[in-house]
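seq:
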Amino acid sequence: MKAFLICGAAMALAACATTGADAPDTPAPGQVSGRCDASRIADLVGQDASSALAADALARSGSRSLRWAHPGTALTMDYRQDRLTIGLDGRNKVTTLNCG
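struct:
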C-alpha cells in the first residue's frame, strides 16, 4: 500500500511539471532569463546556507529554481539550464555552486 501511495504522489507531481515548450523563449522586461550563470555568485562559497542566501543566489545567477546538495544526498542527473545546485558541507557552509 505504501509503494502505491508513493507512486501515485510521484505521478501527480510529474503531471504538474512544466516542459521546455511551456517556457517562453525570451523573458519579459524586468524578468530573469532563467538560464543559470554560477560565475556571477562565486563569492557565496564559504557562507552559511540560509533562505536569504538562496534568494540572493537565484536573483544574481538568473536561475529559476534551486536545490540544496547536502553531503551524501542523492541528486538526479538530469540537466536543467534554469537550475542552480548549491553544494553544502557538514557544517551547512556553501562549498559549490553549479548550474544544471
